[in-house]
Design goal:
- The relative contact order is 0.14.
- A hairpin with a 2-residue loop joins strand 1 and strand 2.
- The longest helix is centred in the middle third of the chain and has 48 residues.
- Helix 1 packs across helix 4 and helix 8 runs antiparallel to helix 9.
- The chain is about 75% helix and about 5% strand.
- By secondary structure, it is mainly alpha-helical.
- Its main location: membrane.
């Protein structure tokens, strides 16, 4: 059972990991998640064929994720035998490598700048790096909408979900969540190639994201237009294909007063998705507003975790009645 002091230590390590992310940003060379992506491609090519693809997908997920998570646990254990600060440094470093707050800003705000400068070709190119939809024929409103939607969704997937699982299980928890989320992004498609093979990746990500997604949605509600966010969450989330993206994106869109969803082009075909939010169509300036909402959510939960840890310490030190 976690003591008050261990909870306080974990909260301080969480703040340290976020600070490292903010100061250093995404690793430009040899990023572990990029290497993991290449590993996932190799595993999928080796196993995603023939009969029994559900079982092969489960085996592939376990082969990709479990050795790395187990290895992080063993590494922390042996580091603690040398000095507790070594173990603490590994926890904070794992969080730094898994969280994507600074990366989210560095990818999204240049899109806003390009749109503000009326540089549509550059905005299309930058947006194509962060979304799977087609951007070749996208106009300013389409690009702004794509960037805002991606920012809101990644506020959970790349930021708060990682913080939540770090609070639950330290660095290995953050690593487990981020690897599972990466495999869902790579394998969790409902098409002929991945429907069976990616079942494990999709369902595991759904399970790990269920609580964080709703806490993220609650945070967006508290930090924006609460009444509109609550209304959009209640009436729109269930219609979205993803059980976790629905609450996050509907609450976020409502909090910002934006109308998201609708038509988008994928592989040359127009798909019409359920509406999200209420208000005006996104413009370039709304991308920065969306990122600000994610950043404020991060600060909010750092404060919440710290306050809870301090209260736990104080409760332990209070004399019994």
């Amino acid at each position: 059972m976690m003591t008050g002091m261990s909870a306080l230590a974990l909260a301080l390590l969480m703040a340290a990991g976020v600070a490292l992310d903010w100061l250093l940003g995404e690793a430009r060379r040899f990023h572990p998640l990029v290497g993991f992506g290449k590993l996932a491609v190799t595993i999928e090519r080796a196993l995603n064929h023939g009969n029994g693809r559900y079982a092969r997908g489960i085996l592939a997920w376990c082969a990709a994720v479990l050795p790395l998570v187990a290895g992080s646990i063993v590494l922390i254990h042996f580091a603690a035998q040398i000095h507790i600060l070594f173990a603490a440094a590994i926890h904070a470093t794992l969080l730094y490598l898994c969280i994507g707050l600074r990366s989210l800003r560095d990818h999204m705000l240049p899109i806003a700048t390009a749109l503000s400068n009326a540089d549509l070709p550059l905005a299309r190119m930058l947006t194509s790096r962060i979304v799977s939809r087609d951007t070749v024929r996208a106009e300013e409103g389409d690009l702004a909408k794509a960037a805002v939607e991606s920012t809101l969704e990644n506020g959970n997937d790349a930021v708060f979900g990682t913080l939540f699982w770090f609070a639950v299980a330290g660095g290995p928890g953050a690593l487990l969540f981020r690897l599972a989320n990466t495999l869902d992004a790579m394998w969790g498609y409902r098409n002929e190639r991945f429907f069976a093979f990616g079942w494990m990746a999709a369902r595991t990500d759904d399970a790990l994201n269920w609580i964080p997604a709703r806490l993220t949605a609650l945070s967006y509600l508290l930090l924006g237009d609460a009444r509109r966010a609550c209304q959009c969450w209640r009436t729109q989330a269930a219609a979205w294909p993803s059980p976790n993206a629905g609450p996050v994106m509907s609450a976020g869109a409502g909090a910002l007063g934006l109308a998201l969803g609708g038509a988008a082009e994928y592989d040359g075909a127009i798909e019409t998705r359920p509406p999200l939010g209420a208000g005006h169509a996104p413009r370039s300036g709304d991308i920065a507003r969306a990122w600000s909402l994610v950043a404020r959510t991060t600060v909010l939960w750092l404060i919440v975790f710290m306050v809870l840890a301090v209260l736990a310490v104080l409760a332990e030190r209070m004399p019994d009645a």
